[in-house]
Amino acid sequence: MTDRAAAKAALQAQTVETPSWAYGNSGTRFKVFAQPGVPRTPYEKLDDAAQVHARTGVAPTVALHIPWDRVDDYAALAKYAAERGLRLGTINSNVFQDDDYRLGSVCHPDRAVRRKALDHLLECVDIMDATGSRDLKLWFSDGTNYPGQDDIRARQDRLAEALGTVYERLGEKQRMLLEYKLFEPAFYTTDVPDWGTAYAHCLRLGPKAQVVVDTGHHAPGTNIEFIVALLLREGKLGGFDFNSRFYADDDLMAGAADPFQLFRIMYEVVRGGGLTPDVAFMLDQCHNIEQKIPAVIRSVMNVQEATAKALLVDGDALSAAQRAGDVLAANAVLMDAYNTDVRPLLAELREETGLDPDPVAAYHRSGWQQRITEERVGGQQAGWGA
Amino acid sequence: MTDRAAAKAALQAQTVETPSWAYGNSGTRFKVFAQPGVPRTPYEKLDDAAQVHARTGVAPTVALHIPWDRVDDYAALAKYAAERGLRLGTINSNVFQDDDYRLGSVCHPDRAVRRKALDHLLECVDIMDATGSRDLKLWFSDGTNYPGQDDIRARQDRLAEALGTVYERLGEKQRMLLEYKLFEPAFYTTDVPDWGTAYAHCLRLGPKAQVVVDTGHHAPGTNIEFIVALLLREGKLGGFDFNSRFYADDDLMAGAADPFQLFRIMYEVVRGGGLTPDVAFMLDQCHNIEQKIPAVIRSVMNVQEATAKALLVDGDALSAAQRAGDVLAANAVLMDAYNTDVRPLLAELREETGLDPDPVAAYHRSGWQQRITEERVGGQQAGWGA
Amino acid sequence: MTDRAAAKAALQAQTVETPSWAYGNSGTRFKVFAQPGVPRTPYEKLDDAAQVHARTGVAPTVALHIPWDRVDDYAALAKYAAERGLRLGTINSNVFQDDDYRLGSVCHPDRAVRRKALDHLLECVDIMDATGSRDLKLWFSDGTNYPGQDDIRARQDRLAEALGTVYERLGEKQRMLLEYKLFEPAFYTTDVPDWGTAYAHCLRLGPKAQVVVDTGHHAPGTNIEFIVALLLREGKLGGFDFNSRFYADDDLMAGAADPFQLFRIMYEVVRGGGLTPDVAFMLDQCHNIEQKIPAVIRSVMNVQEATAKALLVDGDALSAAQRAGDVLAANAVLMDAYNTDVRPLLAELREETGLDPDPVAAYHRSGWQQRITEERVGGQQAGWGA
Amino acid sequence: MTDRAAAKAALQAQTVETPSWAYGNSGTRFKVFAQPGVPRTPYEKLDDAAQVHARTGVAPTVALHIPWDRVDDYAALAKYAAERGLRLGTINSNVFQDDDYRLGSVCHPDRAVRRKALDHLLECVDIMDATGSRDLKLWFSDGTNYPGQDDIRARQDRLAEALGTVYERLGEKQRMLLEYKLFEPAFYTTDVPDWGTAYAHCLRLGPKAQVVVDTGHHAPGTNIEFIVALLLREGKLGGFDFNSRFYADDDLMAGAADPFQLFRIMYEVVRGGGLTPDVAFMLDQCHNIEQKIPAVIRSVMNVQEATAKALLVDGDALSAAQRAGDVLAANAVLMDAYNTDVRPLLAELREETGLDPDPVAAYHRSGWQQRITEERVGGQQAGWGA
């Protein structure tokens, strides 16, 4: 027996953090296509994020990227957010967009560069103190392009040293989320290439260090939901960077390329007791060719739909079939939930909380897109690196 | 019996075309790291290419990229090249770096954009007439990011129409080289994703349309030398864009990630009679973190070494073992050639033609790098898009 | 506007061919797990296939594999099938399970082995004459395991020669379906590794030679629906071998690993006018650990559900969004159809044609599984190679 | 400065364990091709292994597979080995070839099957006591084929319980080597799919539990040498199962598909101090189509050549270039070693120890292959499962 009411309550409680950079321009190494109405300041990014929250009701926090979202007064920024029903969320460090980082940041062979990178990480914790953010997300582009370029093991030592220093600096209620990625921008070794490496470091560091799973950062064929189940079992799943991909780190809208995978991931989250605030559900994606705000709305909805389906799995029937070794019956229980059209359920939920049942249509009717297109003229559009 | 003298003669005759853009800055979507001394004009790129040819003796032609290398007077550019012992080579079109091309170029749903892209391709043929270039290399970033975004088949029709128009415009001795690529920057469909698609179009177009193989443009596990053997058998191999990769289109130095693969490719070239001017051997790579000129020199040398090993395969012994079905013996014949250290042979060849046996060391001794670092100050460094 | 009635009519007309070998034992190189009740003769396989057709109403033909399904009297076999409401379908040749084929069949370096393989292929056409089958499906495990083992190009010549001979032997209404596969059991080169190779051969042979797409036979990341669209555009799509996979050629139930991919494939089939008898929709899968008959039923249903969703795509809305370059709207039209729960529609369709709306439940209630478990004792269970 | 004498000493000390099953028949799911002269008993396998050691001088131990190599009297088997200059090596458990293991062994949902599997593992430790083997190698084919089939987390709990029991049973000088594998024969989840999972379990278990790296068990693009470096840094690298692959777990001869990768792996072994008896260098491969004994000899030689090149890397020059951030120079130092033809060095080493410089030729001259072809007639050839 599944419990529709319980599912609705869980969906009501789930929140999805949106990233400030998703509202800005992005692209590939070949071209960044500019779009009209793109924000020019962290404040305007919050304005756009507020639209997403206003339509979906489940996106109350916004992740910041430092230095892209650096401001003089973080308290003012937090206040600006609060006035729009938002909170500032995860602080994302950036130690990959300075010429000094050509050969790495905290793993760089030169101590001076490592120090510069570390100082940036520590500054991010200062910012967390100011914004009240709980999580520091660490992604390092560190790695090498050519065999022999640098010493793999020495780089691990340097990494461990930097992580240790940052860990010591964390406040009592602050956490460090360590992200892994198979490749790009490094093309031979990456210093944190897989969940095992991130896990090993986090284990050494302690309970405030947790692994974050970006759904686009794995080798082809990797079973992501397995990793999710394992990390939850180990108490080391700190959160997600959701996005979708057909090939590499394509950063498409969450659920766009493989909605069944997103469902399987959310099923393991539910199964492993991960549908709690201890696991951060974040988006991290690039809307290179599509309109940005409705793309974020759509992504949030995709996460919700996958979660809804996961919540509708008939756990008793599933367990019974699994225990009986009935392969087809067990698979059928899962597929029954997946094949269910949960859009009516979510529409109902929105209406019950005073929202339009169709967030995308509501956004388009709101006039916001036209307004920003007209008003945001001049200045420098935000983008990767901006 | 292998013939060392014949191998040397073949190596003497082989040339490798270097791309003008390899001398400029490049990077990933995350960051372009600037390097000192990078050229600021097509003329300065030719100066650097001349260094590569001066050290290796086998890189007499330079590929241009339009509009990156657009000049007012191509005859003057050709003359400048000739004065440095160079010729202008393949013309590479670029229909991916304009905001109009957000949804494609010749496959775009809007006829006006398609026309703009086609006009650019035709302009490239005009430039070929001016430079005396034989080959027009066509790579299209066209594709879609999301299922449903556009009609796959209609895009093929548009592609065919554009290719047909360009084909008709080609002069008698001019060729069109059609390049394929699995993905990036498009992340769902790419309009020319594999050799089969390129082959089908070239077959329809006629003998002046040929397929070009970029060694970084395949799905994981693809056997590239098989494709080379097939295209040679079909008379449809127009040339190579050499580079190397561990993951996706990493664009590392040719031979850097998998020297054995480069050897196997060159073996199929030799086996299939492809070591002729009809097959263009070009580099297409990005030196994101390493010095550019010595990286190009090294890449040229890697192609030479792979070719030398391929030429040293004992064809009679190989055929005998293959006919006998002796798997281990046949494999051993190939591996004997691969395991041979051919650097002495190539050093000898260089000395016989008045070159330094160690091109990289000679380059470093030449003072060129210091000179350009000092002199090329101010102005706008060349880079992708510049 | 989509037309529910038209969708139902199309679904009514669609048939899925089931393979005789799916009813027998299968496994991996590590182990074949025996299951109770597995057929011991081609006749018993037809009995099981009749169960699938009786429950689904859309599986009236059965593919045979020679020599696994060799009988003395094919007319008698055809009559036996007809008495159960079935017809004999595609004839699958097998030139990979004889010690002589260690180094290949029609591509073998030894002419005598090639002749033996060719004779088998010609025998298959004889059998087609006897069974009234339209299609000869050719899959060759030919290839090499080690670089140098054999000559890639010579093997293509041998392949072309054999295909030419078989093509000449085909009757006026008979076709040859050439299947490609990236790897396994050959681990270095495979002689027909991709659609391009199959296409090139079929093009040379003529209109009766068509390419067959096995959904498990591609490199990671390959966009299969793109290939489908292309082959339909070229008039060269002969049919499908449906199955599903997470990794390599896993041969799971169709739609099990990536139902969204199966939907996208069926959408391109519908879009390209491929929902006709000219395209053969076949299953080719292995039920290694699950019960075989219900697994086949489930697979047929999965193909139906994907087709139903594809038929429900609102073509006018899609075209309008595509022409407008509205990425999100176009994607949303496709996703609307995919997210629809089509099980009620198919249940309705079944009831209208006198079938149980739930084929799997009906099968389990029928008592067939218990009956064969009890009756099929002794003798040699059918399996791969049996 | 590299030290040729030191390299030779290290090569003299290195040993490679050969697997008893490499001498028997093997194949793919499609076909096992029988070869003449294949052993019929564990004793005959030792006879063949003795040939490999006699020709190479570095293969003194033989890994056993239980139950394939089950005998009544292991002391007698060990004595037989000793008389041929061999020792019995690693004991490999097999809990994947019994019908009971259709849904897993130690992770099976049924307690009775788990107990049976566990008993087999404990029996293997008994055998280790009898043979004096140090290492128990555990590879589990456990996993699932379909989403929902079983509970991922519960299976981890069962796995941990079984491993704990076996760990407790180990003698003081005995070790447990836990192997991971991405997929096959399980096609959805595998219960130990990657190094991270194996590492997490070994860490919990204690110092006698170590990870073993099979070079064919990774997702495409995985950087194996990085894993090697990490595991050495963590003190958790127990050994290798060497083989080579282009696609999946192809089990080709070590070094056959990517000799550069094997070199990079051996470089990290040398760099990380892993060239000691604490790291077991084992082969685990299948000679499906080539002669088995010379294939094993060739594989041993390939490991030696890769090791030799790794030992010849000029460590001082490499470190200097790495510290200086000179990407090209550092890469060149590594490539210089790789491009060296080390066959003369190894031939010299063999001659100094009284061996023929060309082990394969010496084997073929020895008459052993003809002898076993003539003598081993009748009986049941050993093979996977035999």
TrEMBL record, chains A, B, C, D:
Xylose isomerase-like TIM barrel domain ranges (all copies)? 72-246
Enzyme Commission number, as recorded: 5.3.1.14
Where does the UniProt annotation place the signal sequence? none
Look up keyword Isomerase and say if it applies.
Answer: yes
> SUPFAM superfamilies from the xrefs?
Xylose isomerase-like
Q: What keyword terms does UniProt attach to this protein?
A: Isomerase, Manganese, Metal-binding
Q: From what superkingdom does this record's organism come?
A: Bacteria
The enzyme's main class, written as a single word, is isomerase
Stretches assigned to coiled coil: none
Q: What is this protein called?
A: L-rhamnose isomerase
Q: What is the lineage of its organism?
A: Bacteria, Bacillati, Actinomycetota, Actinomycetes, Kitasatosporales
